[in-house]
Write a structure and sequence with these properties.
Layout lengths: L1 H14 L5 H14 L4 H30 L16 H20 L2 H18 L11 H21 L9 H21 L1 H7 L4 H4 L1 H20 L6 H18 L1 H18 L1
Length: about 270
């Protein structure tokens, strides 16, 4: 019994649920934007999205564990006594989630979901391991941890891609690139030591400029979703500025983009 409990704990640990926040939010934005959901679609959306995020992070932990040994900022459970059985449980759950998507969702949701899962796997897993290929590491992140999450939620809630939604899709893409570039910057030294040729390893100056540019583009894209209300704008700027002053300009971007896009969807 104790072994079962420990294995379940490891499955949760390798899934890293604390890292899901931004990506849950992206999927939820699309689901709310679709505006035509019910109890069944809500249940399938929640289960399938949580399962996907667990899989993406667990696969990343599995194949990053050797490199994480040299990175003091990483706290990989597989390097702290958890065995790989926890990852296998997450993958089995992912197969069940895929069955639910196949049974209860339309074809475009199925295609989007399978594509999202596939890209997240080849990002981390050999032989492709696109995480270690400069440029593709950012491009894949834009898709599987950005645009595709939004589209999956949108499609599952009965929405369609329209001209009015394109700026939202673009902004989510910019913000996803910003999140990835920020992570790559923090891990640059250790990725270099391990041999992953990320964008920040191969083109550090270009990547730094791209980080700033995607942050700016994320803010510009999100501005159009702020309700045209002086009080709301003032409160948003004040809150984001306080966050940025305390935690740095990257957190200013986080606060401004997340609250702007959320207000734009729920207004």
């Amino acid at each position: 019994m104790r072994g079962i409990v420990e294995t379940i704990k490891c499955a949760v640990a390798v899934s890293r649920p604390i890292g899901w926040k931004a990506y849950l939010w992206m999927g939820l934005l699309g689901f709310i934007e679709g505006a035509n959901f019910n109890f069944v679609s809500g249940l399938v959306f929640t289960y399938s999205l949580l399962s996907y995020l667990a899989t993406a992070f667990a696969i990343n932990n599995l194949f990053d564990s050797p490199g994480d040994l040299i990175n003091p900022h990483k706290n990989n459970p597989l390097n702290r006594g958890c065995n790989k059985l926890g990852v296998h449980i997450v993958i089995c759950n992912q197969l069940l989630a895929l069955v639910a998507v196949l049974v209860f969702t339309p074809l475009k949701c199925v295609v989007t979901y399978i594509l999202t899962v596939t890209l997240s796997v080849i990002y981390s897993a050999p032989p492709l391991r696109l995480k270690g290929r400069a440029g593709l590491d950012v491009l894949l992140h834009i898709l599987y941890f950005g645009i595709l999450l939004y589209l999956y939620g949108l499609y599952l809630a009965g929405g369609e891609i329209t001209l009015s939604i394109l700026p939202m899709i673009a902004t989510i893409g910019f913000y996803s690139a910003f999140l990835q570039l920020r992570n790559l910057e923090e891990d640059r030294l250790y990725d270099m030591m391990y041999g992953d040729k990320t964008l920040f390893v191969v083109y550090p100056i270009f990547a730094k400029r791209l980080l700033v540019l995607t942050g700016i583009l994320s803010i510009i894209g999100s501005i159009m979703y702020v309700p045209f209300n002086p009080l709301v704008v003032a409160l948003l700027l004040m809150f984001s500025s306080v966050v940025g002053r305390r935690y740095g300009w990257k957190r200013f971007v986080d606060a401004f983009v997340v609250f702007s896009l959320s207000l734009g969807v729920i207004k």
